[in-house]
Amino acid sequence: MSNASFIVVANRLPVDSVVDDEGNRTWRRSPGGLVTALEPVLRANQGTWIGWAGQTGAAPEPFEADGITLLPIELSADEIARYYEGFSNASIWPLYHDAVQPRVFRRSWWKSYYEVNTRFAEVCAAEAAPGAVVWIQDYQLQLVPAMLRERRPDLRIGFFLHIPFPPVELFMQLPHRMEILKGLLGADLVGFQRPLAAQNFLALTRHLLGYRPRGHYVTVDDRLVRADAFPISIDTAAYEEVANTERARHRAKEIRAELGEPDTVILGVDRLDYTKGIETRLKAFRELLEDGRFRVPKTVMVQVATPSRERVEQYRVLRDKVEREVGRINGEFGQVGLPAVHYLHQSFDRYELAALYQAADVMAVTPIRDGMNLVAKEYVASQIENHGALVLSEFAGAAGDLRQAFLVNPHDLTDLKDGFVTAAESSPDDKMKRMRAMRRYLRKHDVSRWARSFLTALGVPERSAAYNPGSPPAADAAEGT
Ligand code: ADQ
Question: Residues with Cβ within 6 A of ligand 1?
Answer without folding.
Answer: 162-163, 232, 269, 271, 304, 306, 346-348, 353, 370-375, 378
